[in-house]
Amino acid sequence: MKQLERLMYLQGGDCFFCGKSIPDGEASVEHLVATANGGQKSDDNCVACCKSLNTLLGSRTIKEKLQIVLNQKGPFRCPANIGKQGSETALPPDPLDGKVALVMEDLRKRGSSRPLKPDTLRNTIAAVFGKQFTEEEINAILERLQANGCVSVQDGKITYKLPPKKKKT
Ligand SMILES: [Zn+2]
Questions:
Q1: What is the three-class DSSP state of 23?
Q2: Which residues of the chain have pLDDT under 70?
Q3: What is the structure's pLDDT at 128?
Q4: C-alpha 72 to ligand 1 mean position (Å)
Q5: Ligand 1 mean position, distance from CA 28 (Å)
Q6: Do 10 and 57 fall within a single domain?
Q7: pLDDT (0 to 100) of residue 168
């Protein structure tokens, strides 16, 4: 039995670090104390883990490796798993984004007849959503519009800087 196969068997096919089953071709032997640093090739210095993490750890000192592992918040993930596996690791879409986009679309359509005062803009935003919104939601949208630079309020007057409509490709 090769060492990798043996370690994989001992670990139940799971990565030593992230605990997930290692996909085919991703398994690799990680020398905890790197051989470059005098580490042994025996099983007690070796674990099977995802290749991506092994590559990242390289021949760092055991201290640095521990630090990297400890730096991770929440359940440990090997680098290959970051951003893959869809919903589990991806950030949930911000529901506000869609609403802000709708408001921007409405304002764009209004051309020069956009509301000039914050209160009127509030009413406009409320109207876009059939007045289904709470004051807080409207404020949040307004804040977002100001944060992304589309709307600026100065001395109680609004100026608009709407980005041109994106062409659908
Ligand atoms: Zn892993």
A1: coil
A2: 80-93, 166-169
A3: 87
A4: 13
A5: 10
A6: yes
A7: 59
Which segments of 24-117 does DSSP mark as H helices, in order? 51-57, 62-71, 95-110
Identity of residue 56: L
Check residue 87 and give its pLDDT: 40
**Where do runs of H (alpha helix) occur along the chain?**
3-10, 51-57, 62-71, 95-110, 118-128, 135-147
**pLDDT at residue 88 in the model:** 44
> For the chain, what is the domain count?
2
CB 3 within 8 Å of CB 29: yes
| 108 and 127 co-located in one domain | yes
> Residue 129 is part of a domain; what is its CATH number?
1.10.10
CA of 94 to the centre of ligand 1 (A): 29
Claim: this prediction has a pTM higher than 0.70:
no
Mark the residues whose beta carbon lies below 5 A from ion ligand 1: 15, 17-18, 50, 78
